[in-house]
Amino acid sequence: MAASLQKSALSPSGDRELLLQRFGEARARTTELTAPLSTEDQTIQSMPDVSPTKWHLAHTTWFFETFVLASAIRDYTPFDARFGYLFNSYYEAEGPRHPRPERGLISRPSLEEVHDWRAHVDEAVQHLAQSIDQRGWRKLRPTLELGLQHEQQHQELILMDIKHVLSRNPLLPSYGAVARKNAEARPPSLRWLSFPGGLYAIGSDHDEFAFDNEGPSHRVWLEPFRLASRLATNREFLAFIDDGGYRRAKFWLSEGWQVVQHHKWEAPLYWGGEAGARMLFTLGGERPLDPDEPVSHVSYYEADAFARWSGKRLPREDEWEIAARHAPTEGHFASSGEFHPRPASGDGLTQMFGDLWEWTSSAYAAYPGFRPAAGALGEYNGKFMCGQFVLRGGAAVTPGAHVRASYRNFYPPGARWAFSGTRLADDDA
Q1: Is the peptide bond prior to 216 cis by the omega test (within 30 degrees of 0)?
Q2: How many Cβ atoms are within 10 Å of 278's Cβ, its own excluded?
Q3: Helix and strand tally (H, E) in the chain?
Q4: 51 with 87: CB under 8 angstroms?
Q5: Which end of the chain is more exposed for a tag (fewer CB within 10 A), N or C?
Q6: What is the pTM of this model?
């Protein structure tokens, strides 16, 4: 998950207090998410794509120190100059960095030192933002907003990554006290909603925050299409499995079939047990699989194979965005404390926002007219526009205020540790 310079209005000086309040709340929320974890929990890296919790705490702090404080304060002295090498992610313009697969080897600095660094940087950012003149604030504000949005992305990554870490422990421990809402009824039957073809504008074209990969706004031509009214469920995916879905090459892209064979996939990530007694690992520990919940932690390959088996397809990202305009930007997000998708409820187009990120069939590529920003911050989105697919909508671990209809998440097609699900689409002749 990545960020870059955004399209955002330069607000008057009166919004300083509001932005600094949001900054403080976001930084506190990140720390709050780590509270249920032991020091040992926060140092483990369970696979190369996962980063230790401590690394997330440090990296987000490095971001503010590097791009806010050091860029605005002449002769700024870092808290510890060695930390730049350890906690730079992939900004080539900021110099060399520790290899990503070896982040779990960073036993020093200690977790306590990282928290001291966070407190130091938080105080310095607050002081800078309150003392800078109006001209300086206009320059500083977009980067501070970007850092806040980047912090929220890492809140989601903390939950994603620690779920994988805990799943590798034979004890299958719980992340902590996780709320769970019991479904009042089975989800509604899947229905199909039709959308007319025509010329549409998609992408961000307004003054609110948006990452650079969400624009420029541009026109696309869509043929008539249909979307499923809700996400695919575990029950529906079990039918795919029971019909030999993971054993029949006819449903799979060639590369996906190779991945399935190599890794011996037989079910989505975090599924355990046998047919008739399926178990699911969640941030609340292991429990019986609920057939009515949306199927989660599936790769693009699995989502695509399931769609082919169903006689349907995955939606294009422009189809998804046009359809999302008919749904409120509301849903089941991280604020619920459940950190797990719920069964669908309600009529019409449901679960478009929250619950699970939804795979689309669209390769992650630049929109017409896209140009990455100059400097290190321009690296964050544009250079990943190869070999990845777009997901839309947000998940049960995403901060609710962080998403919008134009938001473009992206992962490699084999990724399964993200909170990803699938919604079917079809042509509407």
Answers
A1: yes
A2: 17
A3: 11, 12
A4: no
A5: C
A6: 0.94
